[in-house]
Amino acid sequence: MKLYNKVIFITDADSPSGKAVVNRLSGEGTHFILNSMSEGALIKAELAKIQAAGSKAYVTNTDLCRAADVTAMLNQAEQILGPVDVLIHNNDLLIPALAESCKEDVFLEIMDTNAKSAFICSQAVGKQMAARQSGRIIYVSSIHAEKPTGSSFAYSASKGAVKMLSKEAALVLGRQGIQVNTIELGPVKGDNERFSSEFSALYDDYERKVPNELPSSYEDLGHLVLFLCSDETRYMNGSDIRLDGGFLLHYMDHKKKPAPSIGG
């Protein structure tokens, strides 16, 4: 077990990415702090798997944009599980929001959910980790920290903010033995609808824009998170890891991998 008795804090356990990470790490001796807006209703299968593995889970529904609430929750969880060893921030709110028409409240909601929560959580767990001179922070971000969506500039802005938060945190917290890295996740099933745009053809036939046409999944994310949590990555800090199968390397539609022929 690579992560025996480690405490992992996942900021959005209800999401597909959160569930995939729980499923991958639950067999590694890991205990979990799971922030769940459904208060556990949407993660019953994952909670059962954690219990079957002999591990513990602390389920909470905390406003991650309120520093006092996050600190109070972590203090309570520490009494039950111990201090946080790994923060996995995977908040990923997407709302259509064009630069010329986005309402201020929508912009702030996206920035708060995706970026402000990353700052609040990093500061709170950073204090716990600094006291032990050890810890890891992993931001599950998006390729749209670099590439415009064509559908939600506020989403891209929030992911860009997390990208730079990661760099600043790696520089400062790295002096306290804390590693900070970012995963920039590429397209998964359904993202062609999620990032539907009147201006961008990026997600049109997106599967064929991956060089080997290998479909991605959140399970791939789980494997990478486990690797970043492990001792094998002790020298990785301030890194951006693009997990997109080479999707962003695509540059011309006529260079897409050809569609398979039908018939003999």
UniProtKB/TrEMBL annotation:
It comes from the Bacteria. InterPro entries: NAD(P)-bd_dom_sf (IPR036291), Sc_DH/Rdtase_CS (IPR020904), SDR (IPR050259), SDR_fam (IPR002347). CDD domains: SDR_c. Belongs to the short-chain dehydrogenases/reductases (SDR) family. PANTHER family: 3-OXOACYL-(ACYL-CARRIER-PROTEIN) REDUCTASE (PTHR42879). This is SDR family oxidoreductase. It comes from Paenibacillus sepulcri.
